[in-house]
Write a structure and sequence with these properties.
Strand content: 15-25%
Radius of gyration: 20 Å
Number of domains: 2
Number of helices: 11
CATH architecture of the largest domain: 3-Layer(aba) Sandwich
Shape: globular
Protein name: S-adenosyl-L-methionine-dependent methyltransferase
Bound molecules: S-adenosylmethionine
Oligomer: single chain
Largest sheet: 7 strands, mixed
CATH superfamily of the largest domain: Vaccinia Virus protein VP39
Distance between the termini: 60 Å
Keywords: Methyltransferase, Transferase
């Protein structure tokens, strides 16, 4: 039985989300309220949800493949379409402990992409490095790595997959000269900010009001970060021969990003992968 204030809030939630979605969310929120370390009340959680805050920020976690990652504002909540291509990438490539991959994830957010690869690939087959410009993201990605029991350092006596993250600006013209990165890499992954100015105006309020604009804006055309990634990849010795670059793309960007990547020297071929809803979601380039 819900106490009267929660009943009123739940009825309001039903009007806004529909009965079955509101009932599902009530169940998750009630469970989160019971287990919350911060002793947050169900009333508070329902009120936050009614104000349009994303459910994942209120609960504090989001499943990503077999992982359950911590999420909190303003770091971007990992999306199911990202999970889908990362699992496909994990199936398509098979690094081994004898030939481990060195990965660079650009704009890591919660750390979801490299942490899932660390979890799915064989022990000792992946050394994942990540950058982000946001200190909130870096702190959260480190917490997620500890939660997933992914160590930072390679231990020659106990080979494990490793993950570390630093603060760096992928648009900076001095990124390579600053010696923050350590190429060559075998795999580059990124779900960069790709929303254009015009698309931003049509985003749902729950995104605009709660998620970091830095995680969303990809410049006026939405393509600024892909051009920056292509410039990096073009630098001789940045990606090893046989290396792979996997980039998530936004609405109607796949062909444009494919062209941008094909212009980068040494790319042998590119593919476009679809998401579970049939949308062109990932451009994969092979060196
Ligand atoms: C779309 S989010 C993706 C986050 C995460 N990879 C995911 O898939 O959920 C883009 C990320 O890029 C970061 N970012 C934005 N501008 C950046 C820059 N100039 N250099 C490095 N990271 C940046 C944001 O802070 C954000 O975490």
């Amino acid at each position: 039985m819900l106490p009267p204030p929660a009943v009123a809030l739940f009825n309001a939630l039903k009007s806004s989300l529909g009965s079955s979605q509101a009932t599902r969310e009530l169940k998750w929120l009630a469970q989160a309220a019971r287990t919350s370390a911060k002793a947050t009340s169900l009333d508070d959680m329902l009120a936050r949800r009614l104000s349009g805050e994303p459910l994942q920020y209120i609960i504090g976690s989001q499943p990503f493949g077999p992982l359950n990652l911590l999420v909190r504002p303003p770091v971007l909540i990992p999306r199911p379409e990202t999970e889908h291509w990362v699992v496909s990438l994990a199936d398509a490539l098979s690094p081994t402990a004898q030939n481990p991959y060195k990965l660079l994830d650009l704009g890591t957010g919660t750390g979801c992409i490299p942490l899932l690869l660390c979890h799915l690939w064989r022990r000792g087959s992946l050394r994942a490095h990540a950058i982000d410009i946001s200190l909130d993201a870096i702190e959260l990605a480190k917490e997620n790595a500890s939660l997933c029991k992914i160590p930072q350092e390679v231990d020659p006596l106990n080979p494990r997959n490793t993950f570390n993250v630093i603060r760096a600006n992928m648009l900076s013209p001095t990124l390579l000269r600053d010696h923050l990165l350590d190429p060559p890499y075998d795999l580059i992954t990124s779900n960069p900010p790709y929303i254009s100015w015009s698309e931003y105006l049509n985003l749902p309020e729950s995104v605009v009001h709660h998620e970091d604009p830095k995680a969303l804006f990809g410049g006026p055309s939405g393509l600024e970060f892909y051009h920056a990634i292509a410039r990096l990849v073009r630098v001789p010795g940045f990606v090893n021969p046989g290396g792979v670059i996997a980039l998530e793309v936004g609405h109607e960007q796949a062909n444009l990003v494919q062209e941008i990547m094909q212009d980068a020297a040494a790319i042998k071929r590119t593919e476009i992968w679809l998401d579970p809803w049939g949308k062109q979601r990932t451009v994969v380039a092979y060196m």
